[in-house]
Backbone:
């Protein structure tokens, strides 16, 4: 009582001396600023909370105690002293599994409980621990509902990321990458843009790196994955597939820190199909090395057979070094970092190198003005290998086993060696290609941004961000004149210089305050946005090399040289608004809207408005549940959002092309103009919950979503030439997708002595259905996925967008395969029908970690359940008699195909059962299976992506050293094992590069180069 | 406070300077590397050169008219079609896409700018193209063509399209007759590769299209009442000499051309006539006057022993020429130019008329190089694939010969053809004297035309006193001079000038027209053959199922039948020796009457429209046998 009176008197008496105290609240472990932290003067009702940038301002007197509290962090108390500034770092509550602050659009922070859609944070440490060289592949298996596809296991391969499911039949389906509030270019160069117009290379033979892979993973502080359109609504159309929000490290206040880390990895190729070594080249059981196919006689005993796959492989070696320096005061922090990556792939001559240099920092210029900036330079160089049936693997397996392919150069030092025995000149030695052709790209890039935040008056802010993402890229693809059948090529030289310039600007103004006894929180903001995607490309092509072994455009016949240039610019202007209302930290409602004006649409149709709403309700804030030991946190959430999408640049009026006929002049190309393009609209909805149970030992998160993609601008679809054109860009596609994703993690063991074993499980399932295509468009497909027989990624009304179509067997009404009465072989339809769905029934990931004191053992697995995969690899092997299956078939003669004869009785009550035996010779040479035979259903697949053991050296040891404050050593294994019932090379193989867009070629395996097995060791140290 | 706010405003303003006005900022969707709009004349050369696409489709109509045999387009040679393939669909691609909107833009922009000459040229070409495509495919997308936003394109029937063709031709004539105030400079002369912008010649061209269009209707029952007058009128205003011929000049000339498309499609360097197409045995029979006789009882030819070149008894009446080479006027010298022979490989007797006449010609069968007598050579006169050069200096084909040459123009329409059209119309009107005169004019015109494109080859070197093929560089195996001499003899001989009204038959007109069209006008020749129903004893019905022909054989008129137009023409199947095979069962016994529309346009993306076509649905397996309106004698059945 006395104390209370004293306190009251004290506060009364101090009132006169009170002053304004300001400061910033950060996460002590990361240095990230924390918004929404309650700052209360102890034992009073006076309080405030930090603004979206972690800053606060409160009137208090010396001697009073400020209490900083925020969910997920331990409370922190500071007594007001003589100074006017108190900045604190809050320590995360170790029992909390999920961060509670998320970074949303434009680098704004939101309290996660207020978010009505599914978001997931990925920690920097997860990226580092993945052992991957780029942050995109590191995400695979870590985020529920996120699929990361790589085109091949070669260094510098393109990656395609899909959050939940595709939202575009023909366009981009990747999420938006955002760095510190500014969009990052993640384009993948399409070889069709070269000056030879795809005559020599396409998305299925050549794959260039995705620009997103440039970013230095070591610079990432944290990542937030905004899965639905609702969460990313303020970013507009580019984020209609969700967004991956990256916050970079900007240095932490306090004592300066120098850190160094490295890793060394050895990669080993595996998973290639076994080649039969019983029968030699030939036909009809007769040895004849004039044939590539291996239907000849048996190899002569004692003959040396060579492993020619081995000849193209090597042990890959990758080395990474990162150095960073950071430090600063509570007002100014700075971080500088450099990182190098040098990689040699598992295929000879393939390599990749990357150099990153970054500088970032934050400064509180005045109490009301904070400036942040990040700048990163990236330089990459990449020597590639071709893909698929152009690739070294396919060419190696076709090389006669009786010849040592590793001797690839003719003794004349210039020509390609030809195999012994084999008399024809139509085989190409892939090693000659690897050493003599150049498939190369290099880039120099700057990603920079500056943002300034002002707090002109209390509870308000103005924030302006400006960003540049700009880069120059060079792509070279050449073919040596002798790298051709009969070595009679004339040489191919392609060089493209492609520069991009993506400036963007966001200006936001906001108001945040609490009312009704701090129970009602109100936050509102309006924004103006502007962005540009500029591309400048100059491509040259030449052939007819003057000197065969010299590769340059200058070495080409001047008459053969052609060039083309292309400049495109897309610009968007937008205004946005958002109001977030919260009550008692229990109920939240957020309304958001954005209106865009796009340069890519006809002026009459160039603006589109899209609203979004989301809400959440935290049950555990209800008074009668709050504090329950078993149910620590439970939130239900829901959201609905509409997102408009514009077209690509120059899609209204296609450019006229020079006629390559006498007299020249101009003509239209394949694609017609469309003056009536409209923005397409995607509506996405989701509901879900998240919760923590049993003293926070169990975490669960579940989302169900469905989207309706209406009026899609479908590019390059075919109609009658009556349109005047071959291809059209029109608003014609409508489809729906739906599915769920879930996450369950538990501390199975959590002991007081620090032993902790955590197991996490993520799973997702999606489905889709095409609702509308024009009646005459029976099927929309990407021609480059048409890569194994007649199988392709056909999109048909009533079926999922991930459908595989092909020419099925003809069947009678009872479903029996019809057999030709003349040949005894199954009859194949002349039209395309649905053969399967590439989307697995379930995608899942398992993470587990066991930690005890400084030791941590972790593993990550990712899997697919019941997928349908096209085994184009085995099809080739069967056609050419390379597989053991083909041996089994020729030896198990004769074959009688199961089915009924197409003799007119097939649909009667008594169809004629097929009894025509087909000779093995016939089988092996003329019947190699049809589309249906090469579809593998119910493929299960589980890959051990990561296995890692790390050890933090005890600080008492380090204390004895003069220089180290932290040290960690680790061993990691990547892609160590795959368990699958799939019989081809890679069940997750993708037959086209990410540049193909649309639904891509995942699940179509045609000589994929799978990810190699990698073993790495490394250490990371922080100096005193 | 004021400072804060002013700095905020300043900061905002400094960002805003980037933004100019909204409209300007967004106005960047303009192509800066290539135009999306050009002046009309810049489309002209491209549209004109696209006519080379017609030669693509001769790969189908050549075999169908028995001008060519092929091992490539075999389905057409056997009167079927290539399922799931765009083969035979080039004119579709040309009319709807390659000329397509380019031509529409040319016309519309010219009319708007009152550039009447250019607009007239545009309409004339449009009329020509659509005349060709409807004769080839029958029903077409006309009213729905080029309409923006349509997702399905309905077909219009051929009578409508025929009328549209003549309307466009008449519109062309109207525009070309208008005073045109535009100063074109070299815009027309430099971009018009047909007439160099001469409106008078284009007017004749437009009349020519009308003639061609109406000439296909001569076997309709209402020809004399409905169409004959218009035809005769147009024929009087069209081409008056070979100088008026419509040909498309090309800039190429050899494999060294900057673009492959600069060379003629039939030139050596593009290798399209490279031994998978060859002269048909029927062409050899017609050109050399060796149409055989058949025993009506067995359908067999009568073997003549001791003559390896003519091992069969020949028909008593030959239409174009006969085998007498010692008497002037019996030999048609066009055979030495239009057909190929391997004789005189060393190009020795380039101006020796007798030696030239003695050369032997062999034709292949429908799908095989070897015919009943010998093996067909390549179009360049060798028993091997075409070769532009040869490293060992052995014989090669150089740039080709006659109109099978890298630098030959494409032939669209000739004076001779006009005369034969006129002759046929007059013959139908029973104006025999005039018909005979027009016939003679036509043959003379074609002789002249044929001689114009001769490129005399180079004689082989003599090594050690022996004539060799070394140094032969392809070309024609005769000189223009010797051709002219022989042509003069032929013109005054029994088959042309010596022909009297008493002996003059429709066969003379149509078979000489067929020779004149060989092989560049195969599509027009096919019009005539279909119009006369391949000389099948046609009932006149348009059966809903099949065309009344027997599944296993097509019974054709014997050559002795006076009503048989193409003497010696027998389909495969027919009742004669080596033709006794059957069509694909889906044909239901009928020969081919039209080429199906382009597969990857219509059969993939416009099926519902094809489905509704009558009397035979476009989706029916025998749609290729559906008789088009022009060839059907009466009114089309309505169901």
Residues:
């Amino acid at each position: 009582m006395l104390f209370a009176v004293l306190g009251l008197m004290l506060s009364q008496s101090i009132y006169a001396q009170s002053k304004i105290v300001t400061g910033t609240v950060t996460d002590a472990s990361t240095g990230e600023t924390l918004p929404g932290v309650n700052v209360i003067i102890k034992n009073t009702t006076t309080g405030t909370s930090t603004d979206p940038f972690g800053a606060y301002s409160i009137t208090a007197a010396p001697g009073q105690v400020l209490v900083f509290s925020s969910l997920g962090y331990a409370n922190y108390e500071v007594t007001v002293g003589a100074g006017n500034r108190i900045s604190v770092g809050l320590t995360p509550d170790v029992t909390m599994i999920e961060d509670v602050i998320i970074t949303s659009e434009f680098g704004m922070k939101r309290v996660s409980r207020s978010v009505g859609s599914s978001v997931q944070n990925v920690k920097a440490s997860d990226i580092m621990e993945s052992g991957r060289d780029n942050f995109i592949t590191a995400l695979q298996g870590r985020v529920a509902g996120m699929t990361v596809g790589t085109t091949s296991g070669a260094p510098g391969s393109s990656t395609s990321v899909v959050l939940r499911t595709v939202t575009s039949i023909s366009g981009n389906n990747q999420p938006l990458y955002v760095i510190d509030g500014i969009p990052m270019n993640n384009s993948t160069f399409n070889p069709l843009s070269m000056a030879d117009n795809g005559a020599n290379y396409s998305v299925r033979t050549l794959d260039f790196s995705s620009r997103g892979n440039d970013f230095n993973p070591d610079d990432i502080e944290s990542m937030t994955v905004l899965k639905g359109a609702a969460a990313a609504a303020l970013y507009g159309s580019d984020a209609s597939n969700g967004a991956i929000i990256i916050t970079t490290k900007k240095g932490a206040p306090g004592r300066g820190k120098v850190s160094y880390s490295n890793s060394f990895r050895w990669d080993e190729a595996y998973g290639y199909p076994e080649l039969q070594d019983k029968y030699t080249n030939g036909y009809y059981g007769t040895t004849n090395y004039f044939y590539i196919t291996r239907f000849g006689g048996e190899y002569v005993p004692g003959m040396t057979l060579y492993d020619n796959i081995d000849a193209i492989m090597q042990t890959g070696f990758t080395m990474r070094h990162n150095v960073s320096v950071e430090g600063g005061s509570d007002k100014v922090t700075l971080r500088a970092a450099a990182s190098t990556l040098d990689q040699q792939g598992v295929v000879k001559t393939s390599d990749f190198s990357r150099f990153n240099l970054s500088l970032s920092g934050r400064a509180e210029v005045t109490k009301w003005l904070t400036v942040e900036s990040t700048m990163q330079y990236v330089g990459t160089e990449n020597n590639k290998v071709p893909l698929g049936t152009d690739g070294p693997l396919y060419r190696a397996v076709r090389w006669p086993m009786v010849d040592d392919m590793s001797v690839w150069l003719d003794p004349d030092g210039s020509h390609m060696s030809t195999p012994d025995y084999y008399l024809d000149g139509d085989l190409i030695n892939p090693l000659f290609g690897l050493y003599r052709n150049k498939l190369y790209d290099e880039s120099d890039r700057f990603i920079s941004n500056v943002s300034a935040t002002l707090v002109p008056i209390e509870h308000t802010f103005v924030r302006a961000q400006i960003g540049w993402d700009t880069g120059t890229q060079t792509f070279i693809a050449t073919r040596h004149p002798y790298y051709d059948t009969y070595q009679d090529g004339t040489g191919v030289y392609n060089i493209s210089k492609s520069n991009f310039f993506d400036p963007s600007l966001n200006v936001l103004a906001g108001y945040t305050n609490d009312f009704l006894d701090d129970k009602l929180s109100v936050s509102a903001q309006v924004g103006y946005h502007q962005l540009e995607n500029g591309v400048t490309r100059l491509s040259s092509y030449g052939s007819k090399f003057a000197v065969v072994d010299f590769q340059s455009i200058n070495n080409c016949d001047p008459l053969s040289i052609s060039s083309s240039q292309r400049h495109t610019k897309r610009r968007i202007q937008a205004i946005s608004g958002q109001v977030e209302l919260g009550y008692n930290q229990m109920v939240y409602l957020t309304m958001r809207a954005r209106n865009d004006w796009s340069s890519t649409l006809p002026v009459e149709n160039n603006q589109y408005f899209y609203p979004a709403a989301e809400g959440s309700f935290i049950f555990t804030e209800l008074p009668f549940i709050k504090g329950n030991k078993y149910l620590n946190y439970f939130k239900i959430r829901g959201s609905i959002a509409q997102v408009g999408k514009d077209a690509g640049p120059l899609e209204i009026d296609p450019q006229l092309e020079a006629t390559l006929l006498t007299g020249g002049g101009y003509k239209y190309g394949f694609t017609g103009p469309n003056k009536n393009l409209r923005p397409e609209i995607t509506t996405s909805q989701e509901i879900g919950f998240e919760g923590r149970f049993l003293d926070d030992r169990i975490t669960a998160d579940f989302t169900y979503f469905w989207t309706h993609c209406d009026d899609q601008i479908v590019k390059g679809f075919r109609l009658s030439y009556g349109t005047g054109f071959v291809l059209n860009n029109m608003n014609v596609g409508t489809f729906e997708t739906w599915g769920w994703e879930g996450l369950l993690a538990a501390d199975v063991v959590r002991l007081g002595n620090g032993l902790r074993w955590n197991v996490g499980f993520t799973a997702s399932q999606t489905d889709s259905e095409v609702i509308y295509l024009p009646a005459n468009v029976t099927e929309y497909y990407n021609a480059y996925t048409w890569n194994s027989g007649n199988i392709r990624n056909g999109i048909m009304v009533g079926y999922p967008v991930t459908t595989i179509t092909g020419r099925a067997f003809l069947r009678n009404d009872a479903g029996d395969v019809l057999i030709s009465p003349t040949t005894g072989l199954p009859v194949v339809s002349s039209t395309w029908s649905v053969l399967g769905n590439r989307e697995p029934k379930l995608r899942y990931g398992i993470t587990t970690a066991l930690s005890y004191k400084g030791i941590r053992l972790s593993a990550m697995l990712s899997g697919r359940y019941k997928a349908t995969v096209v085994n184009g690899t085995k099809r080739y092997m069967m056609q050419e008699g390379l597989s053991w299956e083909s041996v089994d078939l020729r030896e198990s003669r004769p074959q009688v195909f199961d089915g009924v004869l197409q003799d007119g009785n097939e649909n009667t009550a008594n169809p004629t059962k097929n009894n025509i035996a087909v000779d093995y010779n016939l089988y092996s040479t003329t019947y190699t299976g049809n589309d249906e035979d090469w579809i593998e259903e119910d493929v299960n697949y589980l890959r051990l992506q990561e296995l890692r053991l790390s050890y933090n050296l005890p600080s008492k040891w380090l204390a004895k050293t003069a220089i180290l404050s932290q040290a960690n050593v680790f061993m990691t294994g990547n892609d160590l094992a795959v368990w699958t019932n799939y019989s081809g090379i890679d069940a997750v193989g993708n037959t086209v590069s990410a540049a193909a867009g649309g639904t891509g070629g995942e699940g179509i395996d045609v000589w994929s180069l799978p990810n190699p097995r990698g073993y790495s060791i490394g250490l990371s140290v922080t100096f005193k | 406070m004021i400072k804060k706010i002013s700095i905020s405003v300043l900061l905002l303003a400094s960002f805003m300077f980037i933004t100019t006005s909204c409209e300007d900022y967004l106005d960047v969707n303009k192509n800066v590397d290539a135009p999306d709009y050009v002046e009309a004349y810049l489309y002209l050369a491209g549209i004109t050169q696209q006519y080379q696409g017609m030669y693509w489709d001769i790969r189908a109509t050549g075999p169908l008219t028995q001008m060519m045999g092929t091992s490539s387009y075999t389905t057409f040679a056997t009167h079927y079609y290539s399922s799931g393939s765009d083969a035979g669909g080039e004119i579709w691609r040309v009319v709807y896409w390659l000329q397509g909107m380019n031509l529409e833009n040319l016309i519309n922009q010219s009319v708007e700018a009152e550039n009447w000459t250019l607009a007239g040229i545009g309409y004339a070409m449009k009329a020509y193209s659509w005349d060709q495509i409807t004769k080839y495919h029958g029903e077409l997308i006309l009213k729905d063509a080029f309409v923006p936003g349509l997702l399905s394109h309905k077909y219009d029937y051929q009578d409508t399209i025929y009328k549209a063709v003549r309307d466009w031709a008449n519109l062309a004539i109207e525009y070309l007759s208008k005073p045109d105030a535009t100063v074109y400079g070299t815009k027309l002369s430099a971009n018009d590769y047909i007439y160099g912008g001469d409106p008078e010649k284009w007017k004749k061209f437009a009349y020519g299209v009308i003639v061609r269009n109406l000439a296909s209707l001569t076997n309709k029952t209402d020809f004399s009442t409905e169409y004959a007058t218009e035809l005769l009128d147009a024929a009087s205003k069209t081409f008056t000499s070979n100088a008026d011929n419509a040909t498309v000049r090309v800039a190429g000339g050899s494999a060294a051309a900057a673009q492959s498309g600069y060379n003629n499609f039939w030139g050596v360097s593009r290798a399209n006539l490279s031994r998978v197409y060859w002269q048909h045995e029927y062409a050899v029979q017609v050109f050399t006057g060796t149409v055989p006789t058949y025993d009506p009882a067995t359908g067999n030819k009568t073997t003549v022993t001791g003559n390896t070149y003519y091992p069969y008894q020949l028909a008593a009446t030959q239409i174009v020429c006969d085998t007498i080479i010692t008497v002037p006027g019996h030999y048609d010298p066009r055979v030495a130019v239009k057909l190929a022979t391997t004789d005189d490989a060393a190009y020795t007797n380039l101006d020796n008329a007798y030696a030239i006449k003695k050369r032997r010609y062999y034709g292949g069968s429908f799908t095989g190089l070897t015919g009943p007598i010998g093996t067909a050579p390549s179009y360049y006169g060798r028993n091997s694939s075409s070769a532009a050069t040869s490293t060992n200096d052995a014989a090669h084909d150089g740039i080709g010969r006659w109109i099978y040459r890298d630098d030959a123009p494409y032939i669209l329409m000739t004076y001779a053809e006009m005369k034969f059209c006129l002759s046929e119309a007059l013959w139908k009107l029973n104006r025999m004297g005039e018909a005979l005169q027009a016939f003679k004019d036509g043959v003379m015109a074609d002789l002249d035309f044929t001689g114009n494109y001769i490129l005399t080859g180079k004689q082989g070197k003599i090594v050690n006193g022996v004539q060799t093929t070394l140094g032969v560089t392809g070309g024609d195996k005769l000189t223009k001079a010797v051709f002219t001499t022989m042509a003069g003899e032929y013109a005054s001989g029994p088959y042309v000038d010596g022909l009297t009204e008493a002996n003059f038959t429709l066969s003379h007109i149509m078979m000489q027209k067929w020779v004149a069209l060989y092989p560049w006008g195969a599509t027009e020749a096919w019009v005539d053959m279909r119009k006369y129903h391949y000389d099948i004893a046609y009932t006149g019905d348009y059966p809903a199922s099949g065309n009344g022909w027997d599944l296993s054989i097509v019974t054709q008129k014997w050559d002795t039948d006076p009503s048989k137009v193409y003497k010696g023409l027998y389909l495969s199947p027919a009742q004669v020796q080596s033709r006794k095979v059957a069509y694909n069962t889906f044909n239901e016994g009928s020969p081919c009457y039209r080429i199906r529309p382009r597969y990857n346009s219509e059969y993939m993306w416009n099926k519902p429209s094809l489905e509704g076509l009558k009397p035979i649905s476009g989706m029916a397996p025998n749609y290729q046998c559906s008789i088009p309106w022009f060839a059907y004698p009466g009114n089309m059945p309505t169901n």
Q: What stands out?
A: Residues 277-519 of chain B form one domain. Chain B has a mean pLDDT of 93. Residues 78 and 583 of chain B are 7 Å apart (CA to CA). Chain B touches chain A through 79 residues (CB under 8 Å).
